[in-house]
Request: fold
Amino acid sequence: MQSRLIYFIAGLFAVTIIAVAMLQQAPQMSEDEIKALVNQAVEERIAAIEPQSAAPASPASSIETSELGPVIEDYLMANPSLLQRMSVALQEETNREQAAQAKLALASLKGPIYDDPDHVVLGNPEGDVTIVEFFDYNCGFCRQALADVMQLLDEDTNVRVILKEYPILSQGSADAARIAVLVAQDPNVSYMDFHTRLFATRGQVDKAAALAAAQSLGMNPVDLELRMGEKSVTDAITRNYQVADALNITSTPNFIIGDEILRGAVGIDEMRTKIKNMRDCGKATCNL
Reply:
């Protein structure tokens, strides 16, 4: 009986994993399709664990296919929430693994993340908490996050914000980022004014839009266009790509706060919480 129970648990686990994987790929599967999937997985599982020798199995280790298959099938069909719970658990485990990997990468990349000579620093340069943002000027969620960042800078005078150009959506984004690097190098121009003007642009942000925004701030668009291909500009953006790759950042916006990466426009409340935690315990998430 003990052996049969072990086989039942192992079979149920295997079937559940397979079913979860299939459901993640095709969540609209019908009940008949799910039953067929369960039946197939049960048969495969039983075939894999049945004794391979020609000798008859002992009563303690025998498996009755006619009983085991229907039991597993009935259990899964009567408890569909199990598949959902398994899917959530698998996703949570994946998130934990990614978070652990991110902590290690962040610890090894402090120099490139926080001390790059070409990134833009907003707010208090000596602030006790630093927020790093990877963004693309054609990213709608980046535009949404801009309002949150500006509000944080207004309400918290002890926050430092580092902006890293990370153009991944189009050639227009790449051209705009190149001009933005040159704007940031000019001490007579407000990068924040340029930044907000570009995000306020209607339609696609490209080279023309970036040159127009820079010109409105008194810069020479002809000079900018001639210089935007310089190696120093390419190097500045390339370093951001390298850091993003090392951190498995593949979208925008992404924020770094302390030992965590916040993926997407997480909202100002989440940022406030992480900032508070950094001040309270030195980590983005304090242990309870």
Residues 108-281 form a domain with the Glutaredoxin fold (CATH 3.40.30.10). Residues 178 and 228 are 6 Å apart (CA to CA). The first strand starts at residue 120 and ends at 123.
